[in-house]
Amino acid sequence: MKIALINASPKLKDSASGVILEELKGLLAEHAVTEYGFHTPALPENTEELANQDALVFAFPLYVDGIPSHLLNCMAGLEESFRKSEHPPTVYAVVNCGFYEGLQNRHALRMMRNWCEKSGLVWGRGAGLGGGGMLPGIASVPPGKGPKKNFSAALRQLAESIHALSGGEDLFTSPNYPRIAYKTAAEIGWRQQAKANGLATKDLFQKR
């Protein structure tokens, strides 16, 4: 089976989407897996091959409860080739967000499902992962261990669906890490980023 893994994070490296796809790739090792990077609004080369895949797996971060604009542009550019496909691929999506609760990604997954219907693609299922901000920091943690327990379980379920080219209810998960500790770590990170960019903590509370 031919599977395309599409990293649609605007980050070229050290992204949560990259961590997600790296683990998922290990669960799909028996198949012919090709990797693509949709990091800008311009489609990369050889995307015409996507219409000939059995499955497409998109991984991207949540942006304002939806799909990042650069990815939307890429998706629009692919629609015509998908409509012409005699055997349209089955689409899966993994959306991560900075919120603790994975359910925050539900609207973006609905958007992906609607796009599949518009483009003549088959929608499989999606996964919404909370705590995306911590994924790059725990990339070296073995799958299924510690704070990755729920994360890895969701990816295993998604991989089973991909193996069978089947659908199912969307999956939502939060990290195996106390919510208060996650929130505290995030606030410390924001303060550090503000300082690194010449701002004071009070500047984080400005409204425009």
Fold and architecture overview:
This is NAD(P)H-dependent oxidoreductase. InterPro entries: Flavoprotein-like_sf (IPR029039). With 208 residues, the protein is of the alpha/beta class. It has helices at residues 16-27, 69-83, 106-119, 149-164, 179-196; strands at 2-7, 32-37, 55-61, 90-96, 122-129, 171-173. It has two domains: 2-177, 3-Layer(aba) Sandwich (Rossmann fold); 178-207, no CATH class. The chain has five helices and six strands. It has a six-stranded parallel β-sheet with strand order 2-1-3-4-5-6, with helices on both faces. Helix 2 links the parallel strand 3 and strand 4.
Q: What CATH architecture of the largest domain do you see?
A: 3-Layer(aba) Sandwich
How can the largest sheet be summarized?
6 strands, parallel
Helix content: 25-40%
Mean pLDDT: 92
The arrangement of helices and strands along the chain is EHEEHEHEHEH
Number of strands: 6
In what order do the strands lie side by side in the largest sheet?
Answer: 2-1-3-4-5-6
